[in-house]
Design goal:
mainly alpha; 2 domains; single chain
Length: about 210
C-alpha cells in the first residue's frame, strides 16, 4: 500500500520539486520506498548477515527507516524543534510515509509552502548525516548543532534558488543559539560565496564552502 502511495502523482510532485540538491531528492525518494540502507533493510536484503540491529542514535530500538528518521527519540526532538519554530505542533506518526503524506497539510501559511517543504528534505538529510557520523566516526550527535545546521542549510538553499534575500539568511543565522558571535560573523561574511554542494567542498579550495 505504501509503495503505491510513494508512486502516486502527489508524491512525485512533492519529491521532485527542484528545491534541494538532486542527491537529496533521490535520497528522500529511496527513503519513502524503504530502500535506504539502514540496518533493518540491510538484514532484509542480505539475510546471511547477522549484526546488531539497534539504532545507533538511541541504542534502544531496531533501526528501521521509520524509526531512524521519525520515531527515534533523537530524531523526533529534531523534528519538534524545527516545526516548533513555525508554531506547528504535531504527534509523531507511526511511519515516515505517513509523516511525508501529511507534511504539506501542516504548512502554517500558503505563501510559505516552498520553504516549508524544504524543511522536510533538510531534516531528513541532517539525520542521515549525523547517523553516519555516529556509525563510521563514533561521533556523538549534537542536537544544538543539528538544529543550527538545518536552519543554515534552509536559508542557503532557499537563497540559492532565488526565493529569499540576504535579510532572510541573516535573520536565520543570527537566531541560532548554538553559534557563538564570532562564528556567526564569519558565516555572514562568506554567505555570498556559498556553493550548492551537499558533499562539501570536494576540490580542496577553502573559499568554496559546501552545504
Amino acid at each position: 500500500m505504501e509503495e503505491q502511495v510513494a508512486n502516486s502523482d502527489n508524491f512525485v510532485k512533492f519529491i521532485w520539486q527542484g528545491i534541494c540538491p538532486p542527491k537529496v531528492e533521490n535520497f528522500v525518494w529511496q527513503l519513502l520506498k524503504e530502500r535506504v540502507m539502514v540496518r533493518q533493510v540491510i538484514q532484509r536484503l542480505y539475510r546471511s548477515l547477522v549484526f546488531n540491529l539497534e539504532c545507533p542514535l538511541c541504542n534502544k530500538e531496531e533501526e528501521s527507516p521509520s524509526h531512524l528518521f521519525l520515531t527515534c527519540r533523537w530524531a523526533w526532538i529534531i523534528w519538534s524543534k524545527c516545526i516548533g519554530v513555525w508554531g506547528v505542533l504535531s504527534c509523531s506518526p507511526k511511519t515516515i510515509m505517513e509523516w511525508a503524506a501529511g507534511w504539506t497539510y501542516l504548512c502554517p501559511t500558503p505563501s510559505s509552502d516552498r520553504v516549508w517543504n524544504m524543511v522536510f528534505f533538510v531534516v531528513v538529510w541532517m539525520i542521515w548525516e549525523f547517523r553516519n557520523q555516529k556509525v563510521f566516526k563514533e561521533k556523538e550527535a549534537d542536537l544544538m548543532l543539528a538544529v543550527d545546521t538545518i536552519n543554515f542549510r534552509i536559508a542557503c538553499w532557499y537563497k540559492f534558488h532565488g526565493f529569499g534575500s540576504k535579510e532572510l539568511i541573516t535573520s536565520i543565522l543570527l537566531n541560532m543559539p548554538g553559534l557563538c558571535k564570532e562564528a556567526k560573523r564569519r558565516i555572514l561574511s562568506i554567505s555570498e560565496g556559498l556553493k550548492f554542494n551537499v558533499d562539501g567542498s570536494s576540490r580542496g579550495i577553502q573559499t568554496q564552502l559546501g552545504l
